[in-house]
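Appendix C: a fully annotated inverse folding record. The material below is reproduced so that readers can follow the format used throughout the book. The structure is listed first as C-alpha cells, followed by the designed sequence.
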C-alpha cells in the first residue's frame, strides 16, 4: 500500500524504462525464435532426416519453438501492462499534486506524510488573534482542513486501488494458461496487455464462486470490491463484467449478495459494499448518450447508436434483463422474481442511473406486471431481498435522476400519460397496488404494503420539480416544459372524476413539496389571474424554461385539499407539521412578493386608490380565501372523522413550519419583511371559518376569516410607509370581496357544504 510520501517522491519514469527493456526482450525472443526455427527445428524437416526419430524430435522442437514465441508474447504484454500502469499512476499523481497546490493556495500546509494543517504563519497579527479568539473562525478552519484532507486521502486510496490492480495483472500475465502445450509452468501464450482485463477476469472468477455457493474468503471479497471501486466509471470494465455474467448472472449475484448481507456476521459489511459496487458497475455499463428528450428511443440518434458496439451491448443486455427480471427463481408457492433482487441492488448505487435505461426498465416492468399481476406481491416470508414491489423501488431510484423522472411522466413523450394513468390514476387500467400475503397455518393473511407508493411519490416530486426529493426550494418561478407537463398531468390525473381531494397517504408530502415549488403558478390560478382562469387549459402555458401549469382552479383546489392533511414532518418540538401549513406559508410569502410588484407611487397619491394595488389585492384575497376554505374542509371533513384519523379541533393545530422552512420557496427581502411584520396567526382564520360553517350560520357575503389577509396587506403597506392610507385601505376592501369569491368557489369545488 503506497503512502502519500512514496507516491509524491517515486520516479514513475522507471516504469516506462522497464517497459522499453521488456519490449527489447520481446524482440530478442523473436530473433531467437527465428534462429531456432531455422537452425534447430528446420533440420527435422529436411529429407536427410526421416522416420520416427525425426517425428519425435520435430514434436519436441515445436514445443520449444512455441515457448520462444510465447515468451515473446509474454514480454510484449508485460511491457504493455507497465505502460498502462505508468499512464494510470501519472494521471492520479498529477491530480494529487493539483490538490496539494490548491490546498497551499487556500492557506493550508501539507506535510510529507500527507497530513493537512492550517498554516497560521501566513496570517497577520490581527488575523492570528481573531483565529485564536473566534470559535466560528476556528470551526470554519477545521471544516476546511477536513475537506482538503478528505480530498488527499481519496486520491491516495485511488492510487492504492490502482496499484493493487497492477499487482494482479503482473501476477496473472506470467501464468501458463495452456496446460496442453507440452510444458509445465511455461510462458503464457495468450497474455493480455490490459490491466482492466485481468481485473475483470479475476472479478468474474470470484463472482462465479459466489454463484456456485462455494466459500469465498474475506480477502477475495475485498479484492472484488476493490476492483469495482477502482474501475468506477470505466465502461469497458463494466460492460465486460456484465457480458461475462449476463443478466441472469447479475440477478442471481445480486440475490446472493443480499442474502449474505442479511445473514450478518463479519462479512455482512463487505457484502453491503459489494452491492454498491455492483450497482455502480451496472449504472456505468448501461449509460446511453443523449437524453430522453433529445435522443430517446425511436429517434435517429438513438437508432444510429444502437448499431454501435456500445448500443449492441445495451440492446442485448436490456433484452436479457427483460427475461431474467420476469423469471421466477424460486417455487410457485414462494416466488422470487428477478426484478426484485436486481432493483434492490440498484438502490445501493451512489451514482445516478441513466435516464434512458431507467425509462426502459420502468416501462418493461409495467409490461411484466400486466402479464403477471402478482409479480410484485409479497408471498410468504422467506424472501427479504429488498421490497417485493420492485416497481415502486425502481421509482425511488429514478427520483435520484430528476431528468429520468420527468421523461417517465412527461405527457408529451411516449408512454408518459400512460405511466401517469397506470401509477397515479384510479379505476380501469390503473395499477392494483400490491399487497403482502403470508400463510399462517391454514390462514392467508393479507396486508397493505406499508411502503406502498413511497417510490412513486419521490419520482413524481423529482419529475415535476427537476430536483431530488426534499431538496431545499429556491425562488418561486417557472419550470421547463417537461416539468410543467408532469405537474399538470399529476393534478389532472388525480382529479379525474373530481376525485382530486382523495390522495394516497404516501403521495401527500412529496406532492405538497412539489406544489410549493409551483407557488408562483398556483397563486395565479387560485387568485384568478392565470391564463384562461378559472377553467384552465389542456396544455401548459409558456415555453422553454419559462413554462407554467394551467390546470383548472377546481382541480387545483381539490388536489391541494387532497394533500393538505398529510404530515410534512416535525418542527423542533417534535410536533407534526401538516402539508397544509407549508402550502399556506408558501402562498403568504408569494402574496407578499406579488404585492411588491405593485406600482411605486408618491406619498401624495396615497389619498386615492392605486389601480395596480387594487388588482393585486384582489388576486391575493381570492387566493387566500381559497386556502382558508381548504383548511376548513380539512378540519370538518366527515370522511376523516369516520375513520378516526383526526378528531375535531385536534385534527388541525398550527405549530409553525420551523425546521421545514426549506420546503417553502425563497422570497425577496421586502416580501420576507412583509411576512415577518404580519404577526397575526393566520391559522385563526381557518378556525373562524370552520366554526362558522359548523354552526351553519355563515353568510356567503361575509368574510369571517379575512383578518390574516388584511394583516398581510397592512404589513406590505408598512414597507412603503402607506399603512392606514386611503390607497392601502381601498386595496383591503378589494381583497375582501375577492376573498369571499375565492372561499365560495373553493367550497363549491370541495365537500364542505355538500
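Designed amino acids, in order:
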Amino acid at each position: 500500500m503506497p503512502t502519500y510520501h512514496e507516491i509524491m517522491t517515486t520516479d514513475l519514469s522507471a516504469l516506462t524504462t522497464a517497459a522499453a527493456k521488456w519490449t527489447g526482450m520481446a524482440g530478442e525472443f523473436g530473433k531467437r525464435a527465428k534462429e531456432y526455427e531455422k537452425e534447430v527445428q528446420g533440420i527435422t524437416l529436411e529429407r536427410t532426416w526421416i522416420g520416427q526419430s525425426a517425428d519425435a524430435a520435430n514434436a519436441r522442437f515445436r514445443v520449444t519453438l512455441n515457448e520462444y514465441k510465447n515468451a515473446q508474447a509474454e514480454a510484449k504484454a508485460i511491457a504493455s501492462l507497465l505502460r498502462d500502469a505508468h499512464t494510470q499512476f501519472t494521471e492520479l499523481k498529477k491530480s494529487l499534486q493539483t490538490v496539494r497546490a490548491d490546498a497551499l493556495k487556500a492557506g493550508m500546509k501539507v506535510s510529507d506524510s500527507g497530513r493537512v494543517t492550517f498554516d497560521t504563519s501566513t496570517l497577520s497579527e490581527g488575523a492570528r488573534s481573531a483565529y485564536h479568539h473566534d470559535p466560528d473562525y476556528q470551526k470554519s478552519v477545521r471544516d476546511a482542513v477536513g475537506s482538503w484532507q478528505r480530498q488527499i486521502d481519496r486520491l491516495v486510496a485511488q492510487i492504492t486501488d490502482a496499484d493493487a490492480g497492477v499487482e494482479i495483472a503482473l501476477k496473472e500475465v506470467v501464468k501458463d494458461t495452456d496446460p496442453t502445450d507440452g510444458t509445465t509452468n511455461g510462458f503464457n501464450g495468450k497474455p493480455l496487455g490490459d490491466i482492466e482485463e485481468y481485473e475483470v477476469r479475476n472479478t468474474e472468477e470470484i463472482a462465479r464462486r459466489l454463484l456456485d455457493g462455494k466459500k469465498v474468503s474475506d480477502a477475495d471479497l475485498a479484492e472484488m470490491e476493490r476492483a469495482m471501486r477502482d474501475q468506477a466509471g470505466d465502461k469497458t470494465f463494466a460492460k465486460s463484467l456484465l457480458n461475462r455474467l449476463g443478466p441472469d448472472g447479475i440477478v442471481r449475484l445480486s440475490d446472493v449478495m443480499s442474502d449474505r448481507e442479511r445473514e450478518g456476521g463479519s462479512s455482512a459489511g463487505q457484502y453491503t459494499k459489494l452491492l454498491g459496487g455492483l450497482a455502480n458497475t451496472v449504472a456505468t455499463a448501461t449509460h446511453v448518450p443523449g437524453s430522453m428528450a433529445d435522443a430517446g428511443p425511436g429517434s435517429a440518434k438513438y437508432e444510429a447508436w444502437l448499431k454501435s458496439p456500445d448500443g449492441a451491448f445495451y440492446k442485448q443486455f436490456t433484452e436479457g434483463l427483460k427475461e431474467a427480471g420476469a423469471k421466477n427463481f424460486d417455487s410457485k408457492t414462494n416466488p422470487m422474481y428477478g426484478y426484485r433482487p436486481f432493483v434492490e441492488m440498484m438502490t445501493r448505487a451512489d451514482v445516478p442511473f441513466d435516464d434512458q435505461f431507467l425509462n426502459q426498465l420502468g416501462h418493461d416492468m409495467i409490461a411484466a406486471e400486466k402479464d403477471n399481476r402478482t409479480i410484485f406481491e409479497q408471498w410468504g416470508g422467506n424472501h427479504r431481498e429488498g421490497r417485493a414491489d420492485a416497481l415502486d423501488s425502481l421509482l425511488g431510484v429514478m427520483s435520484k435522476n430528476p431528468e429520468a423522472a420527468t421523461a417517465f411522466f412527461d405527457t408529451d413523450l411516449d408512454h408518459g400519460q400512460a405511466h401517469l394513468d397506470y401509477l397515479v390514476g384510479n379505476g380501469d387500467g390503473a395499477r392494483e397496488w400490491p399487497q403482502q400475503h403470508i400463510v399462517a397455518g391454514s390462514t392467508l393473511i393479507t396486508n397493505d404494503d406499508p411502503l406502498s407508493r413511497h417510490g412513486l411519490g419521490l419520482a413524481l416530486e423529482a419529475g415535476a420539480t427537476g430536483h431530488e426529493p426534499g431538496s431545499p426550494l429556491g425562488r418561486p418561478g417557472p419550470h421547463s416544459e417537461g416539468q410543467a407537463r408532469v405537474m399538470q398531468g399529476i393534478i389532472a390525473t388525480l382529479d379525474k372524476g373530481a376525485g382530486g381531494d382523495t390522495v394516497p397517504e404516501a403521495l401527500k408530502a412529496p406532492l405538497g413539496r412539489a406544489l410549493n415549488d409551483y407557488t408562483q403558478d398556483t397563486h395565479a390560478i387560485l387568485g384568478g389571474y392565470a391564463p384562461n382562469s378559472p377553467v384552465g387549459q389542456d396544455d401548459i402555458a409558456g415555453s422553454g424554461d419559462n413554462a407554467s401549469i394551467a390546470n383548472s382552479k377546481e382541480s387545483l383546489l381539490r388536489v391541494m385539499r387532497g394533500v393538505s392533511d398529510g404530515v410534512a414532518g416535525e418542527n423542533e418540538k417534535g410536533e407534526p407539521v401538516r402539508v397544509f401549513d407549508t402550502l399556506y406559508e408558501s402562498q403568504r410569502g408569494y402574496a407578499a412578493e406579488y404585492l411588491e410588484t405593485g406600482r411605486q407611487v408618491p406619498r401624495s397619491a396615497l389619498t386615492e386608490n392605486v389601480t395596480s394595488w387594487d388588482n393585486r389585492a384582489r388576486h391575493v384575497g381570492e387566493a387566500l380565501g381559497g386556502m382558508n376554505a381548504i383548511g376548513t374542509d380539512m378540519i370538518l371533513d366527515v370522511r376523516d372523522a369516520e375513520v378516526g384519523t383526526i378528531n375535531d379541533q385536534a385534527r388541525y393545530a398550527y405549530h409553525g413550519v420551523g425546521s421545514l422552512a426549506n420546503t417553502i420557496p425563497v422570497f425577496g427581502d421586502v416580501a420576507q419583511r412583509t411576512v415577518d411584520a404580519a404577526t397575526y396567526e393566520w391559522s385563526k382564520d381557518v378556525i373562524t371559518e370552520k366554526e362558522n360553517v359548523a354552526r351553519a350560520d355563515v353568510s356567503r357575503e361575509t368574510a369571517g376569516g379575512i383578518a390574516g389577509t388584511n394583516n398581510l396587506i397592512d404589513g406590505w403597506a408598512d414597507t412603503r410607509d402607506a399603512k392606514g392610507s386611503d390607497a392601502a385601505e381601498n386595496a383591503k376592501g378589494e381583497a375582501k370581496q375577492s376573498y369571499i369569491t375565492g372561499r365560495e368557489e373553493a367550497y363549491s369545488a370541495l365537500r364542505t357544504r355538500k
